[in-house]
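Structure ticket #2291
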Amino acid sequence: MNKQIATALKYDENSNSAPKLLAKGQNEIAEKILELAKQNNIPIKEDKDLVAILNTLELNDEIPFELYSIVAEIFALIYNINKSYTK
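Resolution: structure written out below.
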């Protein structure tokens, strides 16, 4: 049986720090993370490899330098989605 894994990142554009791991979980907790994201209109990006790496971090850890590029692409996509909704 494949277990569901979910993570959530937080990025404060007003700080000089990297995005941080806000939440992570498996199975029921993963379902709750996804449910809360949907309820709050937070975009969801599925990437099993990225989630597997993020799941090794502790809560509130900054993402490692090696993930900056892929996470930046995801945040840029979210920014563009949000920008198109506000027009």
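Closing remark: The chain has one domain: 5-86.
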